[in-house]
From TrEMBL:
<keyword id="KW-0966">Cell projection</keyword>
<keyword id="KW-0853">WD repeat</keyword>
<keyword id="KW-0963">Cytoplasm</keyword>
<dbReference type="InterPro" id="IPR015943">
    <property type="entry name" value="WD40/YVTN_repeat-like_dom_sf"/>
</dbReference>
<dbReference type="GO" id="GO:0005737">
    <property type="term" value="C:cytoplasm"/>
</dbReference>
<keyword id="KW-0969">Cilium</keyword>
<dbReference type="InterPro" id="IPR036322">
    <property type="entry name" value="WD40_repeat_dom_sf"/>
</dbReference>
<protein>
    <submittedName>
        <fullName>Cilia-and flagella-associated protein 52</fullName>
    </submittedName>
</protein>
<keyword id="KW-0677">Repeat</keyword>
<keyword id="KW-0282">Flagellum</keyword>
<dbReference type="InterPro" id="IPR050630">
    <property type="entry name" value="WD_repeat_EMAP"/>
</dbReference>
């Protein structure tokens, strides 16, 4: 099988002989069909073909014959082949593909899927099998194939880190500033604790307030309740100008 940016899947045969010693010089591959995901069922009518948004970026053929697909819009599906009985209803000329697959399980992540990899082995089989999915937003997810629950395994900034800051008297967490977001990390586990997303702006610097209740960036201030590990009760204060460096006055009443 082969995936395309048009959002459908091409199934073809390489027509190789069963005997590996035979010559393949005269073997020519042939296309078996152009297939897509099946849409809603309609009585006595051909079901619609659903193509994946932004194309199919990754595909895996499972041992049981199912197909796992990752698309450009972040959709991850496990597809099974539909065994149509009788003559297949004809579609329009503009519909070159057939609704050949039904989705058994589906989920969606942020960002385009770049690759899929199945983790299985002697210690990972059955319900313990995991599907790893990588995205263009620099994240890796682990998906349990039984429950199809997402777990974020790895994440990082997509662009250059412009600044890093630790809260006063606390080395267990730190904040990083980059283009489009500010993140708070746990130093011991290297896991992301909090992400503040502000699209279409670049944070040039970041700092913690002396009491640990606020995170101030070059353009916005997000106030939250202590301690620094607790990301609840966020609120934004707008109006700050873009700057290249800043520091907070010890009385917590201003920033210079």
């Amino acid at each position: 099988m082969s995936a395309y940016r048009s959002g459908d899947i091409i199934k073809f045969s390489v027509n190789f002989p069963e005997d590996p010693s035979e010559s393949i010089a005269n073997c020519k591959p042939s296309i078996l069909g152009c297939y897509a995901k099946c849409g809603p069922w309609r009585r006595n009518r051909r079901p619609e073909s659903i193509c994946y948004g932004k194309g199919v970026e990754a595909i895996i053929i499972m041992n049981d014959g199912c197909v796992t697909v990752g698309s450009g819009d972040g959709t991850i599906d496990i597809l099974d082949q539909i065994n149509w009985k009788g003559e297949f209803p004809k579609g329009k000329v503009l519909d070159p593909n057939q609704p050949h697959f039904k989705a058994l399980k589906s989920t969606k992540v942020e960002g385009s899927i770049t690759s899929l990899e199945l983790m299985e082995g002697p210690k990972k089989h059955g319900s313990q099998r995991l599907l790893l999915a990588a995205t263009r937003t620099s994240e890796i997810y682990a998906i349990n194939l039984t429950s199809f629950v997402l777990t974020l395994v790895f994440t990082c900034h997509q662009n250059v880190i412009n600044d890093i800051a630790f809260p006063k008297g606390m080395s267990g967490v730190f904040a990083t500033a980059s283009s489009g977001d500010v993140r708070v990390w746990c130093l011991e586990t290297c896991q992301e604790l909090l992400r503040l997303v502000v699209p279409n702006f670049t944070c040039s610097c970041v700092l913690f307030a002396h009491d640990g209740k606020s995170i101030i960036t070059a353009t916005k201030a997000y106030t939250r309740s202590p301690p620094p590990m607790d990301p609840r009760n966020l609120r934004g204060v707008t109006g700050a100008l873009p700057i290249s460096g800043m520091n907070m006055i010890s009385d917590l009443r201003g920033v210079d």
